[in-house]
Amino acid sequence: ELIIKQDGQDKNDCERNAAKRLFEKMKKDHPKLKLIITEDGLSPNAPHIKNILEYGWHYILGVKEGDHKFLFNHVADSQKKGNVIEFEIIEGKITHKFRYFNQVPLNASNQDVLVNFLEYWEISSGKTQHFSWVTDFTITKENAYKLMRGGRGRWKIENETFNTLKNQGYNLEHNYGLGKNNLSVVFATIMMLAFLVDQTQQLCCQLFQSVWKKLGSKRSLWEKIRALFFSLRIESMEMIYKTLLHGYHKPVPVILDTS
């Protein structure tokens, strides 16, 4: 679904409204599906969190100190009182440092919305990465590492999706969201459908996986596929993949001399 102005609406659409529609549809289509919602720092607001919990789901949402000063100040004050738990896990040359506190008010305006706060530092080769989240899961020393992995898992989805679409042959650009008469919307929709098919093959098709591994990159794979489309009579995608995997005899062109 595209985030665009909906029928009968005067205001522009936004991620928050689109999320409401998505949640409603997901619950209707998959009423028994258990979900953990992971999102970035724009998402942790009281209505959104309440919406997630109403559907019986869980959440791990990124938070930033600049956007949630009340939350971070509350944790800092609690730490001075000795109520915040800190610990480290050392894996080889990597140090995982955690700080957590359960049942923290989300913000000054919604102190009835209590969240569990997790802060994390990864220290490796002199470099430090810092992340923080709120979640409805009760945080313990035993599950903090797993919750951290769940929160950071969003980056795998986001990076692999957008990096692939922008830099690995699909050529998606920000200006695909602009334009008139819905042409850019059509381009973006077709591209996402193609990406969906490619992801399915990447997960489930051994032939696709073998060709991708042989050629080394998706960009190279797309270029080879296009070349075969232009130069040979192709009967199926299976033929293309087998041709790229096993090789083929290049035909000698027959020149049509009409003189």
TrEMBL record:
Pfam families assigned: DDE_Tnp_1 (PF01609)
An individual GO BP term: DNA transposition
InterPro entries assigned to the protein according to its UniProt record, in alphabetical order: Transposase_11 (IPR002559)
Molecular function as annotated in GO: DNA binding; transposase activity
Domain Transposase IS4-like: 2-194
Cleavable signal peptide: none
Protein name: Transposase IS4-like domain-containing protein
